[in-house]
Amino acid sequence: PKGVINDWRKFKLGSEDKEITPSNKRQLLRQLSSPYQSLSKDKDAQEKFSRKMSVTEYEMTQGKEDETCLRKYRRQCMQEMHQQLSFGPHFGVVYDLENGEQFLEVIEKELKITTVMVSIYEDGMKGCDSLINCLTCLALEYPLVKFCKIKASNTGASDRFPNHVLPALLVYKVGELIGNFIHITEQLGEEFFAVDVESFLNEYGLLPEREFAACENTSDGSDVDIE
């Protein structure tokens, strides 16, 4: 599509190093990216620049730096597309809830599209710190999910969370409980990591698509060709 081609030309022109790019090449890129900007009143000129690019012109716009420039352009397009598709607030941290009132508020007042995960813990209980550390890592990978933690003794319903059921992980969406995992260490084992918790939650379909981050760290050989 002409719009995509023109966007690429403009991006390439902005990425060119003026000190090492010949002036005739920069001028050609400007004309190709905005063919009617300076010649809008000249019909013959419009027709001239609306034609297909000649072989000579194509060769002038190509160079060893094109592969790197195209890779940057792909990353930018993918990032912009991902931002448009990522609706809702971004969190990225584990929120500390101080009492039962805050607990209820975070469940009832979040947007319908937001998944809320609450870790119920107590200091010194085996597995509680490990689960919180894992959720802290996952909060960075899944910023659309709101991760929280609260002491069982602060929930206002400590009788529902005796020590033998901790750590517990409760998952809510639209105010409804959709995941209830008590004594989660029985499923994860005594020693577990963020990737284990991630896999466990994915088995139940409780995590959204992973937040796009690989584009910034893509190596030279891992790009996918776009035709």
Compact overview of the structure:
The protein has 227 residues and is of the alpha/beta class.
What does this structure look like?
One of its GO terms (cellular component) is cytosol. Keywords: Cell projection, Cilium, Cytoplasm, Nucleus, Phosphoprotein, Sensory transduction, Vision. InterPro entries: Phosducin, Phosducin-like_reg, Phosducin_N_dom_sf, Phosducin_thioredoxin-like_dom, Thioredoxin-like_sf. This is Phosducin. Among the domains are: 36 residues; 111 residues, Glutaredoxin (3-Layer(aba) Sandwich), CATH 3.40.30.10. The protein is 43% helix and 12% strand. The chain has a five-stranded mixed beta sheet, with helices on both faces. Helix 1 runs antiparallel to helix 2, helix 1 packs across helix 5 and helix 7 crosses helix 9.
Can you give keywords for this protein?
Phosducin, disordered C terminus, 227 residues, single chain, alpha/beta, Glutaredoxin, elongated, sensory transduction, vision, five-stranded mixed β-sheet, Phosducin_N_dom_sf
Q: What does the radius of gyration come to?
A: 27 Å
- Strand percent estimate: 5-15%
The number of helical elements comes to 9
Query: What is the molecular shape?
Result: elongated
Profile the largest sheet: 5 strands, mixed
Q: Structural class from helices and strands?
A: alpha/beta
State the CATH architecture of the domain at 94-204.
3-Layer(aba) Sandwich
What is the assembly state of the chains in this entry?
single chain
Share of helix among residues? 40-55%
Fourth-tier CATH superfamily name of the domain at 94-204: Glutaredoxin
CATH topology of the domain at 94-204, by name, is Glutaredoxin
Instruction: For the record, give the distance between the C-alpha atoms at the N and C termini, rounded to a whole number.
Output: 12 Å
* Record field, number of beta strands: 5
The overall pLDDT, averaged over residues, is: 76
Secondary-structure element series: HHHHHEHEHEEEHH
Stretches where pLDDT is under 50 for at least 5 consecutive residues are 212-227
CATH class category of the domain at 94-204: Alpha Beta
In the sheet with the most strands, the strands line up as 1-3-2-4-5
